[in-house]
Amino acid sequence: MPVSSIIETFRTQFIEQYHDSILPSHLKALDAMANCRTDGSLQMLAQCPECEHQLFVPHSCGHRNCPHCQNHESQQWLEQQLQKRVPAEYFLLMFTLPAELRKLAWEHQRVLYSLMLQCAWETLRSFVQNDKQLQGMAGVIAVLHTHSRKLDYHPYVHFVMPAAAIDKEKKQWRTKEGYLFNDRALAKVFRAKMLEAITNEELILSERHPKKWVVHGKFVVGTGDKALVYLGRYLYRGVIQEKDIVACKNDQVTFRYQDSKTKRMLTRTVSGPAFLWLLVQHVLPKKFRRTRNFGFLHPRCKRLFEVIQYLLGLNPNRALSWLKQRPPLKCPACGAKMRIIQTGISRFELLKLLLEQRSSRIPIENDLAGELTV
Asked: Would residue 163 count as lying in a domain?
């Protein structure tokens, strides 16, 4: 079920029902997704180098919450992270924010999200520095998420981390296997750092915040490839795929999700406006970076990572041929690979081009061609 159709159907009801909670960024996201790759969006002109067949293709909206867009950015991010893999056992860790603090996080998103990323990293950094087997600088890849599998608001941070560290002074590479850190110890330190950071920001803490926080850090993920692919899948392409929207009828939307405990596919049915709210509540603050690299994987540590590559004999240009590449746009007439010759064409410019080329011999395709009259 197309998200754009659901937006068009329930947009008015959504605004009426959630007008007290809607932000301008929410409406901007809905507008972008509603017009993504439609006749109302800007167009690109593609041409076949073999037969000169031309084709107008609608632009994607480029919004990072759109289920259609950001495939190229996601692929770029994944390739960059895979190029930085090191020979060590990788772990997938998750630092969660207690339910009692979610209201505070919602009201101060930019601040709380940044604190979660920074405090979780500082927790891991201190554990690596004090670990007898590692005792050095760690390197981690962090990704912020704000949704549960049921699309409820649930901020947490994923870390993909090699069980390894570099001693910059001695230029030694150290690793460990089988076990990283104690989850309860991580949660205790993370809690202390978060509460202190929130207090320093002069934010009002709820009187009810639990003593026990939750950190999961026992997931061994081998070389890290599959974990990075998993995170990259949800990084830029919204919180739900259109194939998981199974029905839209009687003013209700039904979507499916995988239960985290049983691994079974379940469904959830909500009203149309409520479904739109489930989507837009995960729109991040403008220009907020949900993924960050820390330690020896930070962009500023490029020279240090080159030292690591030299010490370990790593090839920085390792082939990633197993990654799925974006399929090319093929000519519908001869099957050759088409190339984009013009972008950002408005509807008015499109009609003008169609009129100018109507009498030419170059075949051109677009749905608007049928609207023209001689």
From this structure: yes
* Bridge partner list, 255: 245, 268
- What residues contact 341, with CB distance under 8 A and at least 6 apart? 45, 46, 47
Domain count, the chain: 2
* Beta-strand pair 54-58/364-365: parallel
Residue 272 lies in a domain: no
Residues 247, 240: Cα–Cα separation, whole Å: 14
Cα 167 to Cα 175: distance, rounded to the nearest angstrom: 11
d(CA 367, CA 56): 9
pTM: 0.85
Based on the domain organization, do 94 and 116 belong to the same domain? yes
Domain boundary, last residue among 270, 297, 312: 312
CB burial of residue 20 (10 Å; 0-12, 13-18, 19+)? exposed
Domain that holds residue 138: 71-239+283-312
pLDDT tens digits, residue range 324-353?
667 788 999 999 999 988 888 877 777 777
